[in-house]
Amino acid sequence: MADNITPQQLGIQRAREQRSQDYLSMFTENEGDESLVYTDTKGNRTVGIGFNLEDAGNRKFLKQEGINIDEIFDGRKITQGEKIKMYNHSLTQAFNDAMKFDSSFAKRPEPVKKALVDMAFNLGLTKLNKFVDMKAALKRNDYRTAADEMVDSLWYNQVKSRGPRTVKLMRSAAR
User: Fold this and answer.
1) How buried is residue 49: exposed, middle or buried, by Cβ count under 10 Å (0-12/13-18/19+)?
2) Chain centre distance of CA 103
3) pTM above 0.70, yes or no
């Protein structure tokens, strides 16, 4: 095999790449993809794939990466490379938040993981932690009730078409 990679390793690599593409597609649909600053529904200046420029942690990240936020606020388009760095930072944070929210996250079916990561990406851990009844349903592996709890929330009504798509992911794991 080229590069001394086994067929099994190649299969794992391809599966990871597909998973990565699935998440990117989901977030591009749910968050949009803008190279110029826009104001999100909460009034936050945002860029790229839902990257909140008002968030202190995100500002610190941009500074560490040498990305000048003032230039972006002044109308500079972000590059594709910057967009991917911002997205990867946000995605990593969302995965970390989802794992903190659900101690059994790693064992969940992939659609449940995607639903939780999507909610963490959108809400952050503090707001996600307010889904107490959904968390209790997850502890029982009751994905149908977890989905019902998502629907029975202010979040569901605020996120328009994102809500039904994310609930559909959760429901798809119900037996």
Assistant:
1) buried
2) 18
3) yes
Handedness of CA 123, 35, 16, 162 (dihedral sign): positive
User: How does residue 2 score in pLDDT terms, banded at 50, 70 and 90?
Assistant: low
Alpha helix positions (H), the chain: 7-31, 56-64, 69-73, 80-101, 110-128, 132-139, 143-151, 154-158, 162-171
- For residues 113-133, average pLDDT: 97
- For 24, other C-beta atoms within 10 Å of its C-beta total 16
Report all structural domains of the chain as residue ranges with CATH numbers, in order of start.
8-171 (1.10.530.40)
66-96 pLDDT per residue, tens: 999 999 999 999 999 999 999 999 999 999 9
How sure is the predictor about 1, in pLDDT bands with cuts at 50, 70 and 90?
very low
- The amino acid occupying position 103 is S
Cα–Cα distance measured from residue 26 to residue 44, given in angstroms and rounded to the nearest whole number: 21
> Residues 136-157: what's their mean pLDDT?
98
- Cβ pair 30, 162 in contact under 8 A: yes
Task: Classify 59 as helix, strand or coil.
Answer: helix
Determine the Cα–Cα distance for residues 58 and 64; give it in Å rounded to an integer.
10
Dihedral-angle region of residue 144 (phi above 0 means left; psi in -120 to 50 means alpha; beta otherwise): alpha
